[in-house]
Amino acid sequence: MSVIGDILIVLWGFLLLGLMGVGGFFMFRKFLKKWPKEDGVSAMDWEEYYIEQTKHMWMDEQKELLEDLVSPVPELFRDVAKQKIAGKIGEVALRKKRKIITQDILIEGYILATPKRDHKFLRKKLNQRKIDISPYEYLFESE
Asked: Per its UniProt record, what InterPro entries does this chain match (predicted)?
């Protein structure tokens, strides 16, 4: 019984170390996003800035579309993903000097904010919504 107990204690120790390592990895990533860049402002600060500057530009239809597009993201990470994507959409809207967030701006910002490895899931979701992605192909290829 003591051999089995010793093995269980060692396995429990490895499990705890593994879980702490995973948690530490995500905390470190968050720390790096808060670290100021060359301009003295962090990536998260820019996201918050763009969201704040464009929150009046969002119509209900675009909010619903964004909710639907981020639905494949696991619920645990969905809020973080939505903030990153909304920040990029806001950046695109301000750069193009738009008065409202349109579907075109939303999709362009979404593609730019999405990592290349997730583009196939994004394409699938856009096709499910019957959104023509041919005008946005250059965005998929540019990354």
From this structure: YneK
